[in-house]
Amino acid sequence: MKFEICCKITDAKEYNQFCCFENSIYTLRISKNFKYWYYDLCDLIDFYADTNISLKLDVCEKDIKLARKLYGSHKYNEPVLREYESKVMTHSTTFDNSLKIIKENAIKSWNILNEENKDWEKCPIGSLLGDIEDFSNYVMLSLFAQNNEIITASRQKNKIDIDVNQKYTAGARFYLDAEKLAKDRLLLRDGEHIKVKNSIFLDKYLIWYATAERVGTEKITTPKMFFENSNKAFLNLFSEYKK
Fold this sequence. Notes:
Radius of gyration: 18 Å
Strand order of the largest sheet: 10-11-7-5-9-13
Largest sheet: 6 strands, antiparallel
Number of strands: 14
Strand content: 25-35%
Number of helices: 9
Helix content: 25-40%
């Protein structure tokens, strides 16, 4: 199956990025009001140039030339972190899935899990946003300050819900060494996501993981509470990651 992605550059002030499904095409809008917009645009172009996914650019030549000038010699898989990237990146999942991750010593992409277990989820939660199938070949990561617990909460409801104060059952939040992942050229940037192909092995890249029990909070909580309490507990244990 052939996939297509569209990218548009905007001047929006209400978002840095915004993904949607327009005219039957998965579309990423990148705002030039975001300080590092040029990274996202050039990463997007270069990443998909190395794939069989068609990229449709709704971007003027002037913006592409400016982005390339600012981007310089950077690469989407460069072995160092950028100024806006945290040394620790996270991946959140449900508690049941976390038990499997710990047992198998690996965080695996949705497609690998689906191949290993035919009774796995019917579809990834991102499909409700129009995500293309290729995204499921990767483990998606978030920066330390990003609350990706809303993904876990949405997964439990099987619908997208971005309310950080909704009630949900806390799962697990994995804290990974982003510098090592980058150094080993596993860290990939596609303009929208920071991700790793196939699997991340815990024995090499895991720093720590949070659960309700480890953090000392109630299992029934909110994405906001679990996110904040987990990050606080992590920094108390690993003060070297404090800025």
